[in-house]
TrEMBL record, chain A:
This is Potassium-transporting ATPase potassium-binding subunit. Part of the high-affinity ATP-driven potassium transport (or Kdp) system, which catalyzes the hydrolysis of ATP coupled with the electrogenic transport of potassium into the cytoplasm. This subunit binds the extracellular potassium ions and delivers the ions to the membrane domain of KdpB through an intramembrane tunnel. Belongs to the KdpA family. NCBIfam families: kdpA. It is a multi-pass membrane protein. The system is composed of three essential subunits: KdpA, KdpB and KdpC. The chain crosses the membrane at residues 6-26, 57-77, 133-151, 172-190, 248-265, 277-296, 372-390, 411-429, 475-496, 517-539. The keyword Protease does not apply. It comes from Paractinoplanes durhamensis. It is found in: Cell membrane. It comes from the Bacteria.
From TrEMBL, chain B:
Pfam families: E1-E2_ATPase, Hydrolase. It comes from Paractinoplanes durhamensis. Coiled coil: none annotated. It is a multi-pass membrane protein. This is Potassium-transporting ATPase ATP-binding subunit.
From TrEMBL, chain C:
It is found in: Cell membrane. The system is composed of three essential subunits: KdpA, KdpB and KdpC. Belongs to the KdpC family. The gene is kdpC. Part of the high-affinity ATP-driven potassium transport (or Kdp) system, which catalyzes the hydrolysis of ATP coupled with the electrogenic transport of potassium into the cytoplasm. This subunit acts as a catalytic chaperone that increases the ATP-binding affinity of the ATP-hydrolyzing subunit KdpB by the formation of a transient KdpB/KdpC/ATP ternary complex. Keywords: ATP-binding, Cell membrane, Ion transport, Membrane, Nucleotide-binding, Potassium, Potassium transport, Transmembrane, Transmembrane helix, Transport. This is Potassium-transporting ATPase KdpC subunit.
Amino acid sequence: MAGWLFVISLVVALVAVYRPFGDYMYRVVSGTRDARVERGIYRLVGVDSKAQQTWGVYARSVLAFSAVSILFLYLFLRVQNRLWLSLGMPQMNTHVSWNTAVSFVTNTNWQAYAGESALGHLVQMAGLAVQNFASASVGIAVAVALIRGFAARSNGQLGNFWVDLTRVTLRILLPICVVATLVFMIAGMVQNLSGGTDVTTLTGAAQHITGGPVASQEAIKELGTNGGGFYNVNAAHPFENPTTWTNWLEIFLLLLIPFSLPRVFGRMVGQNRQGYAIVAVMAVLAIASIALTVGFEVHGGGTVPQAVGSAMEGKEVRFGIPNSATYAAATTLTSTGAVDSFHDSYTPFGGMMPIVNMMLGEVAPGGTGSGLYGLLILATITVFVAGLMVGRTPEYLGKKIGAREMKLASLYFLVTPALVLIGTAAAFATGNNATALNVGPHGLSEVLYAFTSAANNNGSAFGGITVNTPWWDTALGLAMLLGRFLPLVLVLALAGSLARQKATPESEGTLPTHQPLFVGMVVGVTVVLVALTFLPALALGPIAEGLS
Amino acid sequence: MTLLAEKPPTQKAKPASVRGGLLDPQQLWRSLPDAVRKLDPRTLWHNPVMLIVEVGAVFTTVLSITDPSVLAWTITVWLWLTVVFANLAEAVAEGRGKAQASALRAAKQDTMAQLRDGGLIPATELKQGDVVVVVAGEIIPGDGDVIEGIASVDESAITGESAPVIRESGGDRSAVTGGTKVLSDRIVVKITQKPGESFVDRMIALVEGANRQKTPNEIALNILLAALTLVFLLSVVTLQPLAIFSKAWQAAAPDTAAIDAHGVTGIVLVSLIVCLIPTTIGALLSAIGIAGMDRLVQRNVLAMSGRAVEAAGDVNTLLLDKTGTITLGNRQAAEFVPVNGVDPRELAVAAQLSSLADETPEGRSIVVLAKNEFGLREQEPGFMTGATFVPFTAQTRMSGVDLGDRQIRKGAAAAVMRWAKSSSEEVGEIVDGISASGGTPLVVAENDRVLGVIHLKDVVKEGMRARFDEMRKMGIRTVMITGDNPRTAKAIADEAGVDDFLAEATPEDKLAYIRKEQEGGRLVAMTGDGTNDAPALAQADVGVAMNTGTSAAKEAGNMVDLDSDPTKLIEIVEIGKQLLITRGALTTFSITNDIAKYFAIIPAMFAAVYPGLDTLNVMRLHSPGSAILSAVIFNALVIVALIPLALRGVRYTPSSASALLRRNLWIYGLGGVIAPFLGIKLIDLLVQFIPGI
Amino acid sequence: MRLPNWLSQHLAALRALLVFTVLLGLAYPLAFVALGRLPGLSDKAGGSLVANGSVLIGQSFTDADGNPVAKYFQSRPSAAGDGYDPTATSASNLGPNDVVDTADRKSLLTQVCARSLAVGKLEGVDGSRPFCTADGVGAVLAVFHRDGLTGPVTRVVSVNQTGTPFLATYQGVTVEPAKNGEDYQALGGVITPIRGDAPADPVVPADAVTASASGLDPDISPAYAALQVPRIARERGMTEAAVRALVKDNTDDRALGFLGEPGVNVLELNRALDQQK
């Protein structure tokens, strides 16, 4: 019961902030005035904040920023041992550095290292956390660019990446993080530069209590749907998630932006009901997924949970099973990947749900920005089929979905499944699945989870698998890189294509994209496409395990 | 369209009488050789989905030869049948066109052309600008305009209408079509076609679907289908290493026909791919397109491109000419309005007398009105001896009768008033009132006394208002085009229920109106026949030229209506929509079918390794072999079952988009989920008796 | 000199990244580090340290050999290093059907069974669980059928036991003990966990036999605390009521009545016990 109240309270809170926070974000991204700090930044960076960009320029800006970020982060990790606050940690090796750099720039935060034993404080703060901000902003910027494509009246302009990046970072992410950090510190998260404190336990043993600027990093890690833990055990660590209510707050933060962005969409296209339709799709999928995950976890399944009496393996007492399962669903429905419990030890079907959530393409509500643009792509595909069924050339918000639009949307839809399936198959074909901790179908699930997580930029894992080998680091790095930037470029190309179109006025013959029927259809298309794509692989993993 | 030989002239194409898509089973047989011929990969290349099925079929054939078994051969046969069925759908659709084309070819005999400058050359060698002479009994050698003379022409070869039509030089009835026959007189025709591009040539190409180009929506749909195909291909191919791993881990699992140490067997893998990729829509897609064009042809409309048909479904604004489309061609007397003090009956008598010899429809309607309202008997003109009828001329702008010293005149207000040398404010008011209401006032005067005014009205065709309401429901604005003044136009527009009107319309106005609509992102359809309509026809997204019109108009439009019926536009729009709906519905059906197939095939493949997966076998299919075979057979049969639907098109009733979506989603979405569960189970009940399955 | 477009774009990107690094990577966290030095916050920002550790970080209450120190409430099992090692935080990551022991490691099921048995022994209660043998390993058979997965049973091995099997016969076939290092799954056995007749609701609570997510879980469930009360009272010569009162004092209920689960902070509880003297 308390478990359901936990979920309901999250829903209520998200409903309450949808309008005010969405409206605020709308004003941020569509305002014309620059703050003084922002003007200073534009001058430093050397960009003209008034210049509009076509999709090509926008995309090149995104890619340039991301490329520079990856390179910078890679070098940072490679030389961290020589820097201030390294805590005596050695330099990170080449393949883990590559993997980590790509991981944080792509908003994935897959971690092939353990924070407390691999990284110093400086690289955590100035390397990783900066990307937590930047990658989140990039996602939102691209989503906003796509919305501009829908809203544009044939001028082909998508805004200015540098302005979007700066504004989203400074006016949306940073203020919320400042508040959240303070709250987290009050709850007991550590925020210091200490290399740790040696203590003697009650029974006389030695224990090394770690330190670090955790609270400030935790705030953006959740808000930006990044998920990279300061410590190896992520948000299960008492320093990253000390209380039952910080657990609630973390879930709230990671759902906040993705669930409110549809409001921005509605506002920008001038029809709030379109935003409601999109958020309804997200909500239906999310609530169903959370209910299933919690249901599966609470009701056991699998030999060990039956022996134990509940699925407590890999879960913290203070969070308990329902809240942990809620976190697991939320973190994989978004592109966060932070965990407060370990999915690998979940019941077979309970553990399948995070995989399925990611396979949905992380659209319910998905990552900051990436969730919205992913869902808009799915809505576009739905519009196409539905549009034909009402006897017109399909159009979404007055923009015709023609061959070019379908090509881009289809390619977008193809990228992630291709990466997941090819990656998983390659791991088995090359024998690299041997690093899985578990055997049989569960071992298969570990491999499938890894590629699903990487290609969808989630970052959570069935943690038993050992992935800091050169093969895994390279393969997952590629999956993350392609899984982020191919879709992103395709989205921008679609935005450009839409932005050049004149809008067809709405009429009785236009497919209404704000009604429950359409919402239901998008949900159906999303679920059916995913089921059809991944069911064979799932059948040999979690389904085989769950039905044994 | 059906041709003269097959169709009695009285049976004009009406939607109800069109043999829409009723599939003659014999036609399937007749098309079979064509279907087999289309197995050529070079032909199949344009249909990637079916090409993959064929490649799969070749692969399983090889496997069946190297490692024969009943299951392998049965599946192989059905895979080949799947491709054949798909080809059959296309062949049947084309076959209907081919029959028409051969009839058209018959009309296009080897004619010789008599050049005006002398010389006799074969019709095929005519160039643009050649001038030929055609006399009674001869076939017109090519498309062109009459530049001299007048003749009655039998155009039944292309229109199916046996009544001869008049073609004359100058004006809007100057176009003649090659292959039609001059019945009387002699005309001189200037050829306007390029060699080999005559109207009949284009018709033949069209009905045969020879150089059929994919329409924009078809291309977009093909992209989606290709993406789905690719994704399923990937999900099946990448399954193999996982299957090998699983089989190896579950060492206790025995080798089966579906899975062994090398993973899923080739036969089953191919079966799975074929069942998952959207074969249903892939097989029927081109048939749907061809059949859509065919449905237009059956309604005697020739679309110059599939693109135009599709655009018809998207039309937002329909420009309709008032006269002949919205209203009956002529105005009719509706009321006698006497001026103060005149007995209404006296006015009616005078009006009747003045119209007795007036054979125009307006004149006749006055006589009818007088009879209906005042019981005045119709009198033969000859009955009244000594009467002199004064005909209407453009100079006098009135007509009438002189009966001894009684001179009765009716006509335009100003003209009659001048003739009667009278000026009455009252008459002026009545005349203005009638004009304001959209009518035409005819003033009647006897000698120098104005008796009153006849109110002539446009009569809106029956059922037009309902039709326009329907259009509105579909989201289409109807706009009436008229030469009338705005006041008159507005009155008729209100009566007919159109959304807007364009009064005192010149060709330039029409063009400007279309451009304005298009600026706003709307698609515009219109009909036209005159040369001055040509620019507007060309500008419109859907321009339907009347076959009676000029060659310029026919060149400019992207459709020609052989019946020259302007209301046909509404049907064209519906056909366009139906075409898209059929594609969308079958795509939905095709994709939702996959759900059931998974429930058949996945347990069949893997229950041997993980017995728990048999839980997914919700249909309780007999055995892994029968399950896979049933899915493959269902997949093939559903193509055949849907050929009639593809040819006929999904039932379309004009309604709002959300109503349409709801209906089609229930039928084809939900139906697509349920049908294969039933179908596969049913087939399984049969195939389990095949020995060796 | 004008730079080529692509180069100037990358330079702009680099400048933007550097600006953000200074602003978000240094100014933002360091400001909060500074804030964390302020009285009122410094305690928590520093890690909620007390004399014997951090109240947020769990610890083992075992002696040098790893045996429970009986006068202390015991924490949950931990997969962090050798147990509660904050420099090697980890969960076990073992799956729900990890039931077969190998030469390298004990299966999760066997770990659960062994812990249950040990806790039962320590607290003097019944430590039996479903799917566990009386000697504290996973009750798992490898069943060989004539036709692989089906057909008559031909051979049965208790895969986690090298001694006397927990079951004499299975479907009429004598159960063999396992040989070390043999992979019976690979030999064609079907792995079959046996439920046994242990009560569905074991006496030893779930959190007592499972490793936490962090390996640093500072809490145990009130049920596990209650199970330990008699022992603590006995060892410390206190009344059970007094111990229970202390447990209650150190129990964090659900925040707002519905967030999370109630938990008993073991370090604080044990410290409170020590302060009783």
